[in-house]
Write a structure and sequence with these properties.
- By secondary structure, the chain is mostly helical.
- The chain has one domain.
- The protein has four helices and no strands.
- Helix 1 packs across helix 2.
């Protein structure tokens, strides 16, 4: 969905909810029933990634993020990925 955690909307929503843009994106995934598997070896980021259950994005905010979808992937396509 999103590859740019510096996107102004994600930054704005992060400020609104007192969360990081990554947390906003993970919460968006969760509310859409998408299983996201964030990757990090940094303890503070691992903790941050898990701290998305104490808030919920409003329907309006969900729709704003939905509108960012341009149909492009961020990262390798699992159907064509060769390790």
């Amino acid at each position: 969905m999103l590859g740019n955690l510096d996107h102004p909307l994600l930054v704005k929503l992060g400020e609104k909810y007192k969360k990081t843009p990554a947390q906003i994106t993970l919460r968006w995934d969760l509310q859409h029933g998408i299983s996201a598997i964030p990757k990090s070896i940094t303890p503070s980021r691992i903790e941050e990634n898990a701290n998305i259950f104490d808030f919920e994005l409003s329907e309006e905010d969900m729709q704003q993020i939905d509108a960012l979808n341009n149909g492009q992937r961020f990262g390798p396509n699992p159907e064509t990925f060769v390790p």
